[in-house]
C-alpha cells in the first residue's frame, strides 16, 4: 500500500508517496550535502505514467526510481514522457539517459534552447559563471572553486529534448475512470530562462519545480546563458503565479503541504527585504557584488559569506549581482565598470 504524503515527515526519505489522486511523489538523491534530494512526480496517464522532472543521472537515482515505479506495479517502460521544469542537471539529465533505453519522449521549456545550444556547441569554453564571478569582484573565491575541481563535461547527458514546451501548452493525460487530467505549462523565467511550471486546474495542483519552493529561495540566473534581467524576470513570474487561482504546491525540493499564494507572498517579501539590505550596503560604501555579499546574512541560519562552501559563496555573490542590477534598473544605484569589475554607487 502506498502511504499518503506527510508534510511533517522527512521529505528526502526514499520511497513513493501519494500526494493527490493519481499523483505520487518520488524523492531521488543528489550528490551533495546542501540539497540532498529532488522530487519527481509520477502522474497517472492511462496504463502508464507522465513524470514531471527526472532527477540527476546517477546510478542510485536510477535504482530508486525503478524501485518506486515497481511499488506502483509499473516500470520505466510504462513511462510515456518526461515533462521537465528546467534544464538543471538534477531535473533533466536522467531523462536523457533513460530515453536511450526506453524511448519515452522528453519535453523541456523553449526558453532553455539557447543554454543547451551553448552546452552542446563546439566553442564551449568552460563555465560561464566564472566570468560573471570575476565581474562581481569575486576573484578571492576563484582559487577555492578551482581547488574543488570542475566536474568533467559529459555531453551525452545534455542532448536536446524531443519537444520544446511553449508557454500555455496543454498536456492531456488519461486519468482514472475514463476522465482526463490537463496540465498547462506556464513560462516562469527567473531561476532559468526556460523554467516552466505545470498547473493542474482541475486537481487544484501546481507542479512548481524550482520556481516556488517551500523552505528555500532558488538561485537566480545560474545557467549557461543568462537573461539581461533575471531577478526582474523572477519577480514578474512570481506575480504571474500569484495572479492565478491558488493551488496546492508540489515543489521540486522540500515537503508538500503549502499553498502557492502563501509561499509566493513570502518570496516577494524576502526579495523586497533583500533589495533594501543590498541598497543599504551600497550606501555604506560597499561597491562590488562580492563586497555587498560579505555584508549580508545567508541561509536561514544567517551565516556569513566566508562561512559558506565555495560553490554556495559563488551563488550568493552572483545573486547579489542580480539584486544590484535590479536596483540600477530602478534608478536607486548607479552602475559602472572598471577593469572588468562592476561597481555600484548611490
Automatic annotation (TrEMBL):
Annotated SMART domains: Lactamase_B
Could you tell me which Pfam families the record lists for this protein?
Lactamase_B (PF00753)
Please report the stretch or stretches of sequence annotated as the Metallo-beta-lactamase domain: 37-253
List the protein's name. Answer: MBL fold metallo-hydrolase
Q: Write the lineage as a comma-separated list.
A: Bacteria, Bacillati, Actinomycetota, Actinomycetes, Pseudonocardiales
Amino acid at each position: 500500500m502506498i502511504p499518503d504524503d506527510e508534510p511533517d515527515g522527512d521529505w528526502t526519505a526514499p520511497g513513493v508517496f501519494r500526494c493527490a489522486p493519481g499523483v505520487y511523489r518520488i524523492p531521488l538523491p543528489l550528490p551533495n550535502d546542501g540539497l540532498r534530494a529532488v522530487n519527481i512526480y509520477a502522474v497517472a496517464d492511462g496504463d502508464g505514467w507522465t513524470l514531471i522532472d527526472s532527477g540527476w543521472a546517477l546510478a542510485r537515482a536510477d535504482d530508486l526510481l525503478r524501485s518506486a515505479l515497481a511499488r506502483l506495479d509499473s516500470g520505466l517502460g510504462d513511462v510515456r514522457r518526461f515533462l521537465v521544469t528546467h534544464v538543471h542537471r538534477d531535473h533533466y539529465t536522467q531523462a536523457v539517459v533513460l530515453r536511450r533505453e526506453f524511448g519515452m519522449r522528453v519535453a523541456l521549456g523553449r526558453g532553455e534552447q539557447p543554454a543547451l545550444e551553448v552546452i552542446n556547441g563546439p566553442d564551449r569554453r568552460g563555465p560561464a559563471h566564472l566570468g560573471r564571478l570575476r565581474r562581481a569582484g569575486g576573484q578571492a573565491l576563484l582559487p577555492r572553486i578551482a581547488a574543488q575541481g570542475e566536474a568533467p563535461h559529459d555531453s551525452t547527458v545534455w542532448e536536446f529534448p524531443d519537444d520544446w514546451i511553449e508557454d500555455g501548452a496543454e498536456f492531456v493525460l488519461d486519468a482514472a475512470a475514463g476522465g482526463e487530467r490537463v496540465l498547462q505549462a506556464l513560462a516562469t523565467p527567473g531561476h532559468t530562462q526556460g523554467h516552466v511550471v505545470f498547473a493542474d486546474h482541475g486537481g487544484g495542483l501546481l507542479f512548481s519545480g524550482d520556481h516556488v519552493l517551500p523552505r528555500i529561495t532558488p538561485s537566480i540566473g545560474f545557467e549557461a546563458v543568462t537573461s539581461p534581467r533575471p531577478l526582474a524576470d523572477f519577480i514578474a513570474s512570481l506575480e504571474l503565479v500569484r495572479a492565478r487561482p491558488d493551488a496546492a504546491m508540489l515543489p521540486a525540493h522540500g515537503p508538500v503541504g503549502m499553498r502557492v499564494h502563501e509561499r509566493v507572498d513570502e518570496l516577494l517579501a524576502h526579495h523586497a527585504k533583500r533589495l533594501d539590505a543590498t541598497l543599504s550596503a551600497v550606501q555604506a560604501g560597499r561597491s562590488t557584488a562580492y563586497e555587498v555579499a560579505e555584508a549580508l546574512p545567508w541561509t536561514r541560519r544567517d551565516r556569513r559569506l566566508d562561512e559558506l562552501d565555495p560553490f554556495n559563496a559563488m551563488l550568493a555573490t552572483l545573486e547579489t549581482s542580480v539584486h544590484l542590477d535590479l536596483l540600477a534598473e530602478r534608478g536607486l544605484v548607479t552602475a559602472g565598470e572598471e577593469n572588468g569589475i562592476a561597481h555600484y554607487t548611490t
